[in-house]
Design goal:
Elements lengths: L2 H23 L4 H8 L3 H13 L3 E5 L13 E5 L9 H17 L2 H24 L5 H14 L4 E6 L3 E6 L5 H6 L2 H14 L4 E4 L8 E6 L1 E3 L5 E3 L2
Antiparallel strand pairs: 1-2, 3-4, 4-6, 5-6, 7-8
Helix pairs in contact: 1-3, 2-3, 4-5, 5-6, 5-8
């Protein structure tokens, strides 16, 4: 292998790491990517330029109201649908056809039953890991995020001001199927609520065209006249 080929392979590997981190953490800035990957900002920007040209990432302007001083708002990068693995496209098409036929022959309740069975399996696999995190909802959400990532969902959890946790999934193995059968997303949301022991709200989904699946998990509820109280 020539030196040039080795360099190109190393560049491609690093670029894949950048892409995967954007899938997991996006919207994310170049500076945040550089810190996570321990690379220079210049190196990150070089990889981002290639990923933008290939259509794998796009820019979302920072709309936060936090003062940043003078200058333009920071660019935050998100993954496009093209960035997600497509190896299962043939399987997804076959699954959509099978579920469509199932719904036509048996009825919509059969689709609901399938979605519920899938979510029950998810709960069975994740329950012990989530319970091992204890009663704290932040910790339970982090454990759920870790379990999802181990299954390829590129998940992360982020505290929101001490009042809630935002659970993000940057990849969905059944995205193309769920786009046709949202029952899968609905059942998964119920599974998250059961695992965490609180009502959760799905704010966005990859299947619905967003760049990430987002679930809002409340960890506190307001008590009139007494500030906030923990809801556990």
């Amino acid at each position: 292998m020539s030196v040039t080929t080795e360099i190109e392979d190393a560049e491609a590997t690093t670029r894949e790491r950048v892409r995967n981190l954007i899938i997991e953490l996006g919207p994310v800035t170049a500076a945040e990517l550089a810190a996570e990957l321990e690379l220079t900002s210049a190196a990150i920007r070089r990889h981002l330029a290639v990923l933008e040209r290939s259509g794998h990432v796009t820019v979302r302007e920072d709309t936060s109201t936090t003062p940043r001083g003078r200058g333009r708002p920071a660019k935050r990068y998100i993954a496009t649908p093209a960035a997600h693995p497509q190896a299962g496209a043939a399987y997804a098409e076959m699954a959509v056809r099978a579920l469509t036929e199932l719904g036509e022959k048996v009825g919509p309740e059969a689709i609901e039953a399938f979605a519920q069975e899938r979510s029950d399996d998810l709960k069975a696999r994740y329950q012990a890991k989530v319970d091992a995190a204890g009663a704290d909802l932040d910790a339970r959400a982090a454990a759920l995020s870790e379990a999802l990532s181990e299954d390829g969902y590129a998940a992360s959890s982020r505290p929101l001001g001490g009042f809630a946790v935002q659970l993000c999934q940057g990849h969905c193995p059944v995205q193309q199927i769920a786009a046709q059968f949202p029952q899968l997303c609905e059942a998964e949301t119920r599974a998250f609520a059961d695992l965490l022991g609180v009502h959760v709200q799905r704010l966005a989904t990859l299947a619905g065209g967003e760049h990430v699946c987002t679930t809002h998990i409340p960890v506190t509820i307001p008590t009139p006249g007494k500030g906030m109280s923990t809801h556990q």
